[in-house]
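Minutes, methods subgroup
Present: GH (chair), OT, SY

1. OT presented the first of two proteins processed in the latest run. Sequence and structure tokens recorded below as shown on screen.
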Amino acid sequence: MIDSRTICFNDIFTKHYKRVYYTALRVLKDHGLAEDVLQETFLKAYDRLDEVQSERKLGSWLSTIAARKSIDQLRKQKKSDSV
């Protein structure tokens, strides 16, 4: 049985996945890594969906998560490259 939160989240994903993906792609310049960040972003968003105070702010909230996760990914790469 699918609960209403899952259905709602599917709608959120469908509406915002392109924005999140292209946010990550602009930072990372790598399609594979951008897809990884897309997945990580929506996993984090699913866990913290109750923190969103307005549906109008949802897109920018998701983009912010994606940008920060992308920067974290770049830091990990830089750290592993220097070792």
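2. SY then presented the second protein from the same run.
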Amino acid sequence: MDFPEVFALALLCLLAWFWLDSLKAREAGVAAAGQACQREGLQLLDETVAGRGLRLVRNEEGRMALQRVFEFEYSESGYDRFRGSVTLLGREVVMLELSAHRGLRLVQ
């Protein structure tokens, strides 16, 4: 094998690893959002999350890790929509936000 072939194969393996790792992180994001919505008595709309950001950061041990931010939509009544977000460092949830619905309640 020539160097270009080895390089192409290594790049292909790296892309496959990144794709599989991204799928697992997305699954962790969906699970975290679903559990938070269930705990708060909310409905996770579309049962999915969408990627909003990706960057390299240092974890607690000082090692480089991928930080991913996912957005999702949820509802209190089924007639409204709010945005939430979940931040993962690797596959560990480090922050989950769904506070928008609390400040928008109407009192009659």
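Chair's summary of item 2: The radius of gyration is 18 Å.
Next meeting: continue with the remaining queue.
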